[in-house]
Amino acid sequence: MKKKERHEKILDILKVDGVIKVKDIIAEMNISDMTARRDLDTLANDGLLIRTHGGAQFLNHSNETEEGHEKTHTEKKVLQTNEKKQVARAASKIIKDGETVFIGPGTTLEHLAVELKNRNIRVITNSLPVFLILHPSSSVDLILIGGECREITGAFVGSIAVNNLKSLSFSKAFVSANAVFNNSIATYSDVEGDIQKIALDNSVEKILLVDSSKFDGYDFYNFYDLNRMDLIVTDKKISKEVLDKYKEFSKIVIADK
After folding, report:
1. What is the CATH number of the domain that holds 32?
2. Residue 140 within any structural domain of the chain
3. 3-state secondary structure the chain
4. pLDDT of residue 81
5. Fewest C-beta in 10 Å: which of 26, 111, 240, 245?
6. Is the residue at 130 inside a domain?
7. 52 and 91 share one domain
8. Low-confidence ranges of the chain (pLDDT < 50)
9. Residue 78: per-residue pLDDT
């Protein structure tokens, strides 16, 4: 296999899987360890991937983004749907009746809202989809944080949202993310990330809901440190390698059904 063909093959694998190991390249292309590492170094120098220990990471890998552009709310809703529902069900069991919780924007958090429709709790959110799910409930005390609405996600952001949120406190804050890499929690939008940071800072317990595809991914804006989270809830498809890596940063609960 020629050099150009190898490079194209590596990038094709990264676009699908997000990560690649040197040992997998050797097995797939029947080349030496030195050649595999040289190919990765060349692609990294061209700005097409990021080298990691024993392999590489696609530069812009995130299931929530595509070719540098944020996916629409509709596109995100069909990604890892079963896994997101599992995560949401597990997270709902953490909430006690009478609590005041913040729920941020994101399709996983919308599934959480569905699980909470009949609960006796107070919910503060800056997500229009979350608000619309919970609005018909007679048992949920619901507050929508206003501001400038991002059409692509339905999240309220900007100075009005920031000022409204700063004066509020929560027993638990639930946020999601487009990507988690090492100690960074990332999203596409800096203004959405800033809102989630304020909510987390104002909460007694900080809880991250992400399906397993988000780990070892990248996105534009790192809005919080993973080791400041009290809990991460993810699905059972998370690999042992990834689980062992990230449980060093925070406690992880795996949704089993």
Report:
1. 1.10.10.10
2. yes
3. CCHHHHHHHHHHHHHHHCEEEHHHHHHHHCCCHHHHHHHHHHHHHCCCEEEECCEEEECCCCCCEECCEECCHHHHHCCCHHHHHHHHHHHHCCCCCCCEEEECCCHHHHHHHHHCCCCCCEEEECEHHHHHHHCCCCCCEEEECCCEEECCCCEEEHHHHHHHHHCCCEEEEEECCCEEECCEEEECCHHHHHHHHHHHHCEEEEEEECCHHHECCCCCEEEEEHHHCCEEEEECCCCHHHHHHHCCCCCEEEECC
4. 81
5. 240
6. yes
7. no
8. 60-61, 67, 73-74, 77-78
9. 46
- pTM, entire model: 0.72
Domain hosting residue 158, numbered range:
69-255
35 and 94 both lie in a single domain: no
In a domain, 216, yes or no: yes
Number of domains, the chain: 2
pLDDT per residue over 166-190, tens digit each? 999 999 999 999 999 999 999 988 9
